[in-house]
Input
Amino acid sequence: MDKTSPNERLHLWVTGRVQGVGFRAFVAHAANNLGLIGWVRNVGYDQVETVAEGQRADLEEFAHIVGAGPRASRVDRLHHEWLPASGEFSSFDVRSSK
Output
């Protein structure tokens, strides 16, 4: 298995106190530290959505970190979906709100 190419995709929806607390920057920082590619964006008042691609172990660590959130946040619910990687990303980006 090629360690450099992503082989899985994790799609996360995080609900709680995730607006105005630096949540998207926190998620992007975690993804970059783990070498993941994808994106994060605000969805509505109390939800953040993120898609990340990489190795399964790195994605599991990412989900754990995102579920904890930054200090000022409160994660009430973390919904996830595992998919095969698409390979469409070259970096991890903070996107505009939906």
The chain is about 25% helix and 40% strand. Residues 18-94 form a domain with the Alpha-Beta Plaits fold (CATH 3.30.70.100). The longest strand covers residues 74-84.
